[in-house]
């Protein structure tokens, strides 16, 4: 099956998505598929695949030269809320990203402001992944976003204008989401209905407005049951596929994909971008089986911050005969057992971190809280995930995906290890401080080392001779 | 007022006449020839001398390759240069950087270093390493330290437990680290220490500790041990220390105890007093120096090697070092400044986008992420390290072309474009070696 999205205006034939092979032959329930997403000027993305998730315009801990040299990642997710904070010193200054001059290496303000290499496909949406819950609700024409200087409203017209200026390759129009409910809970049916209605209105406004032809629109699919949003989804299929304005879907919960198969199969000619936050590769594989093409994986950044080196491949290797149980999905390099281990972060990995360094060094960097530890883990973890998706693509092509997916579930642990290491310092835009008694005295970050040192000195008193203690001679 | 054509004597220092004449006679003979000296694990080759000042250009060959002097050495305290991969550090042109013995002794610890096979292998750095002795922590953690003839007793800043650092322990650790240049353990006092008797004790003890270090050093054939001249701001004590240390014939010589808050005039007097007495064919390392003005003046006074955490630390605070001074990228004025960190800089961040390897980083992006995402710190670290290395490279080229005084003037004019407000200490120190900044 080959489906080309051919919008009406010739200059807007920006994006091409082809489904090259699917796992349908493996059984009616398996919708996993192999495809290729190509945007002019960018490195094509073989799907299923993932794209990197940025924070304030950068992949955390990885400078652009290392992205170009050491990562296979072909796309990056950006959030507008990372760029539009109100300056406290200069309230009238517009966000600087909008005026960033472009150059041949950085063809849009999004590239030039962030220094993103031009082979990377850019996806710009409103909110960070994962988004910080907002206590303020959305209104009929705006959503609440969280910037470095606090909560702000973002109107549908301001968002459209921002996208027109920044010209990402792909954008996701605003959706009325309930980002303030605890994860895992669904909105009430009344709220869900309003989410669908508002998002539907907003998409009509969106497509009625002129948008840069170099930006492809991926319409949001809400994390609510199909019957509540069927009108919205039918409009997408019936109005905006024929008009050529709709290039893909941004799916907040991939479990809706089977309903699309049943009720709106034409929507499945589009590439499906998942904005859900799978917490381990088993969830990713399940979403691949449902038909997800591209993943955003905040998981990788979190795993690196936790001091974990991913350690899995697809298809899974045969379990070692001596193995007492399932294999761990990642190695916790903060554990003291790695202090003298000069082997690569994971066996057979060929990434820069594994070829130039070893577990012992990364363990030390984590112990010493040196930033390079997180950099090397990011390089490694993105490489493991790239190899994982390459394995998935080959498996689907071979027609063995379902079998190998089930085997993967048997060979590996069901959850990621937690990671005992101390994380990098949290910044204000990454979390909302919680008031209330139960949070009093809880700090997101440990005090700075000078304060610790002062406390240690005070605790040691002035007794320079350490009377009563066993004197150690060497470990200065 | 001094005559700018007169050499070092114009500093007004009491210098033994015979020695001075001897040294400058050598200098004249040297102007067009290359001279070298070797020890077991080091070759020092003098390739150029400034005909006005005492600045020298040389090639230092160490077990992990050749480095060009004068040189700035960035400080990778805990075996990592603040977020840069060794590959990125190499790309800045760095071929010699520091590790800190005190920190590596705590983490990962000597056992791990031995098990892994030394610090080069541990951190994936195939170029040269220099380690300090751990003695500097006596100054920086003074409240927690107590010095005896045996060594230094610390209270661990981590858990308050008592620890002892002796010259033998320092050598043993640095042997485990495998650094190309090791530093002797010395008794460091802040130069402004008021007690002259204590200062003399520290100087003399440092000489005794050098003897213990030489005796304890296991691998003189593959690691170079440098001595450290002490003596505070007392020039006579510094001279005495120079004589004692030079007599012990280490492959290189450091001037220590400086950059501890002394007046810049005093700092310059100490450097010039020492360089005057040191043998010509050995590298001279002024410890803990990193401000660009200090580097340029110290080169003019005859020093070759420098290290400091300031360029990389200040990067993490959002500060960029440029030829026009230090710019704080967190300031609002840079929020919408789409120029490079420094116009004309050749580092990866700044070089024009049509050049190979350019990252096209703007001041606006650094402003956007300074003190927020670590990447901004990494990029500024790349820039600042490049700046420092490039400054020394330019100084070297100027020395070889015998254009060094012009280089110095241009450098100071970049920082003080009015051509007037040069700092007095720099004017005086440079006048002492024949450069008149205020001439215009």
Q: Please, could you describe this protein's structure?
A:
- The complex is a heterodimer of chains A (476) and B (440).
- By secondary structure, chain A is of the alpha/beta class.
- Chain A is built from 13 helices and 15 strands.
- Chain A has two domains: 10-296, TIM Barrel (Alpha-Beta Barrel), CATH 3.20.20.105; 312-429, no CATH class.
- In chain A, the strands form four sheets. Chain A has an eight-stranded parallel β-barrel. A three-stranded antiparallel β-sheet of chain A has the order 1-2-3.
- In chain A, α4 runs parallel beside α5 (226-240), α7 (281-290) runs antiparallel to α12 (401-411) and α10 (359-367) crosses α11.
- Chain A is 31% helix and 14% strand.
- In chain B, α11 (292-300) runs antiparallel to α15.
- In chain B, β9 (152-155) and β10 form a beta hairpin.
- The model of chain B is unreliable at 1-32 (pLDDT under 50).
- The longest helix of chain B is centred in the last third of the chain and has 27 residues, at 374-400.
- Among the domains of chain B are: 71-279 and 286-299, Queuine tRNA-ribosyltransferase-like (TIM Barrel); 314-387, no CATH class.
- Chain B starts with 16 loop residues before the first helix and ends in an 8-residue tail after the last helix.
- The radius of gyration of chain B is 21 Å and the shape is globular.
- Chain A: One of its GO terms (cellular component) is cytoplasm.
- Chain A: Zn(2+) binds at residues 349, 351, 354, 380.
- Chain A: GO terms for molecular function: metal ion binding; tRNA-guanosine(34) queuine transglycosylase activity.
- Chain A: Keywords: Cytoplasm, Metal-binding, tRNA processing, Zinc.
Describe this structure in a few short sentences.
By secondary structure, chain A is α/β, with parallel strands linked by helices. Chain A contains 13 helices and 15 strands.
Strand content of chain B: 15-25%
What is the makeup of the main sheet of chain B? 8 strands, parallel
Give the tally of β-strands of chain A.
Answer: 15
Strand order of the largest sheet of chain A: 4-5-6-9-10-11-12-13
What is the percent of helical residues of chain A? 25-40%
Number of domain units of chain A: 2
The counted number of beta strands of chain B is: 17
Q: Strand arrangement, largest sheet of chain B?
A: 5-15-14-13-12-11-7-6
Strand content of chain A: 5-15%
Q: What's the CATH class label of the domain at 71-279 and 286-299 in chain B? A: Alpha Beta
